[in-house]
Amino acid sequence: MNAELQLAKRKMLREHLRRRGIHDRRVLQAIQDTPRERFVLPEAEEQAYADTALGIDCGQTISQPYIVALMTEALNLTGSEKVLEIGTGSGYQTALLAALAARVVSIERHAELSAQAGRRLAELGCSNVRLEIGDGTRGWPEEAPYDRILVTAAAEACPPALLEQLAEGGVLLMPVGGPGDQDLVRWEKRGGKLERQSLGGCRFVPLVGDLPAGK
Ligand code: SAH
């Protein structure tokens, strides 16, 4: 990594993450160790550590670093969890999950994005990740239940299959709402019941697939 990117990365960690309340040491370390510049388009490499979402192929985006950090922290990963991610996209969030959990299953509907993400993750030596191509609204029953589920695309309601595939004591995070007005929602399964909590506003690309009607 060149000196300018190194400086930008340090600045991002200090100003956009720590100063805005991200304090989990493991999360900050994983972000420190993961080269975001390898997950963006080559022409956007210099902006890899700006606190902004960036365009990737197939009209999708790599999420804003602060939101990625916020979601990752809210998952409370200790290293032993099995995680399901819907929306592999660039694979950047997947790499962080792989560093912080025991196993990650990540689903992407665009085969091209999944293939690119697979190459990047292999280069970084992530061996605890399974990438699948398909409609993630159905989850991935084969390896259910999951201790954590992270959906990185928005819809008006959470697909029921995902809530079903959440383990007891597990946490599911998903942006809920329409294109302009979304709320990051955290569900926790306790005694078979779902507790819902709002973590604040956010903006994600739409989840495309077999979806339940909103509210
Ligand atoms: N975490 C990714 C975010 C990518 S944007 C990153 O930081 O790079 C969200 C992704 O969800 C897009 O790649 C989009 O193609 C994918 N997506 C949307 N609906 C989906 C669905 N039903 N199943 C699987 N992937 C989906």
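^ S-adenosyl-L-homocysteine complex. The helical segments are 3-18, 25-33, 65-74, 92-100, 111-123, 160-164. The chain has a mean pLDDT of 96.
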